[in-house]
Amino acid sequence: MKASEKTRLATASAVIVAVAIGYVVNIGSGTLSAPGIWDISVLCPLGALGTMIASHTVIPRAVVSLVLAVVAFVIFGRAFCGWICPVPVVSRLRDILRKGKPATIRVEGAGMPLSEDEKARLGTPCSATERAGKRGCKVDTRHSVLAGAIISTAIFGFPVFCLVCPIGLTFASIMLIINLFATGDVTWSVIAIPALLVVEVILLRKWCYAICPLSALMSLGGKLNRTFVPSIDDAKCLETSKGVKCGRCSAVCTEGIDIRHTQLSKADLSECIKCRACVEHCPSKAVDMPLLPAKKEDVAAVAPQAE
Amino acid sequence: MSAEKTEEKDAGISRRTWCLGAVSIVVALGVGTLKITPANAVVRPPGGQDEGAFLASCIRCEKCASICPHDVIVPAHIEEGIVGVRTPVMRFDSNYCDFCEEANDGHPLCAQACPTQTLSLAGVEVANEGVVMGIAELNRDWCLAYRAMGCKSCYDACPFDAIGLDGTGRPYVLEDACNGCGACEVACVAAQSASLLEGQTNRAIVVQPTKA
Fold first, then answer.
1. Which residues does residue A287 pair with via DSSP β-bridges, in sequence order?
2. What are the backbone angles phi and psi of residue B73, rounded to the nearest 5°?
3. Integer angstrom CA distances of residue B168 from A100, B47, B112, B146, B165
4. Interface test mutation site (partner A, options B23, B63, B72, B110, max chain A beta carbons within 10 A)
5. Tell me, what's the ipTM?
6. What pLDDT does A126 receive?
7. Phi/psi of residue A61, each to 5°?
8. Which chain A residue lies closest to B114 (C-alpha atoms)?
9. What is the DSSP secondary-structure string of A238-255?
10. Sign, CA torsion B6/B9/B15/B19
11. Whole-model pTM over 0.80
């Protein structure tokens, strides 16, 4: 496990612990659905949308929360998924249950010289049509879940997704267990809520990838994200400096982004969860995640451009 | 978060995406229809008494439960209804609601902290006068006083003089004065001190939701 993976696990776990402690000591920390302290909080953007649609009311705090969420998405893209969300932490249970060692990352033909064709591709950014076909640029199931949740909320008059949101279920499970032991609050919920969480996150293995409507919202906001975007120093990259095939940055990306060969990338950069795997796995330390994009021509080939 | 196999490479939306999209919308609508499943009436925290408005705006963030200084707000059980699961309800097993008299000069912290205005005390000057969370209901079969055991714990505990005593010292609820704070329920010794009757499932005095 590389350093950033540990840090990410630690930050997401720290959030869970902080919420649990906040619940026990009654400081009103809420959950990630409305994080804050005492009576100050911001709302989850999806919760904010849901509550306003279902109750036909404009709620000032919800509007402010939505604006703040958009600002956060523009600055950090989908970093929430990589660093804060408890769902990836819960889904680690799957790896524990499977007991298998994580697959080693191997790239076919690594170390071989690049062909002329491959060399030519290095300098060419992907075209608008190529980009439009990538995940994050075209509609996928996350967007239809988002649309379905909003339509259902409008029809049935309650924030539908909140009922099944695995982030909410994670914190609810913890609280139910605390209540069970602290006050003897015995209920089938103690079984049912974690069971639903397990079904969503562990059995439906692609929750984050294919279902999560929050991820859809973040990916939409991430289109405007220009900060903390992974970029390659061509002077260091093995492929550009030595003409040797490498591709590790792409192989380690859990989101299917290939920052080196944007034409081959399955996903748009707006899908980046800022996990820093590409930065850490790069054998020549050529990848960086700078606060602001460098003003260089060749970086422009990597960073998404407003069309 | 694992990378998916490359979908069909055309720039448009593949048939698979269309199908999955349709399925997900149907599932989302299906979750919405849970609203018609049966649900018990429940005792809501201060300011959440309009049940329809409550379900429309509560996002189950547990903020109220986490700020409650007496820990009397808990996530609703699934037994009380599927659609209301995890929404906050009052539970007077070990404490009662003093409308934050002690913690916040009588302004309930739950309503102050509620980020979606689901618990809203707008227009209520004094919470313990303007809010009726529920009404205490006395079960005479279970009450010790009605078995001539001379108990009046609930009468002594009620902060709002909402329990009277009849000629023989047996308690009864003055419904107009009761706001459902739960002090009597906490104090009730029936079913607590080894005095469980056959068939008894609860204390003899319990706050019940108001009948709308």
1. A232
2. -100, 125
3. 73, 37, 43, 9, 7
4. B63
5. 0.84
6. 78
7. -65, -35
8. A39
9. HHHHT-B---HHHHT-TT
10. positive
11. yes
Shortest CA distance from A273: residue in chain B: B1
**Domain assignments of chain A as residue spans, ordered by start:** 3-100+140-221
pLDDT tens string B182-197: 999 999 987 665 556 7
Give me the helix-helix angle, A166-183 and A87-98, nearest 10°: 80
Which residues from chain A sit within 8 angstroms of residue B63, using beta carbons? 28, 30-31, 33-34, 36, 41
Supply the angle between the helices A141-156 and A213-221 in degrees, to the nearest 10. 110
Structure tokens, A181: 């032991």
What single letter denotes the amino acid at residue B189? V
DSSP B10: S
Q: Is A42 at the interface with chain B, CB within 8 A?
A: yes
Tens of pLDDT, residue by residue over A175-206, are 999 989 888 788 899 999 999 999 999 888 88
Please report residues of B whose CB lies closer than 8 A to that of A160.
28, 31-32
How many other CB atoms sit within 10 Å of the CB of residue A125? 17
Alpha-carbon distance A75 to A218, whole Å?
A: 11
For B171, list phi and psi in degrees, rounded to 5: -75, 150
Q: Where do the H-state alpha helices sit in A25-106? A: 45-55, 60-76, 79-83, 87-98
Q: Which of residues 124-183 of A touch B (CB under 8 A)?
A: 129-130, 132-133, 135, 138-141, 143-145, 147-149, 151-153, 155-164, 168, 171-172, 175-176, 179, 182-183
A 10 A CB-CB count for B169 gives 12
**E-assigned strands of chain A?**
36-37, 40-41, 231-232, 287-288
- Show the tokens assigned to A168: 């909410």
**Rounded Cα–Cα distance for residues B150 and B139 (Å):** 15
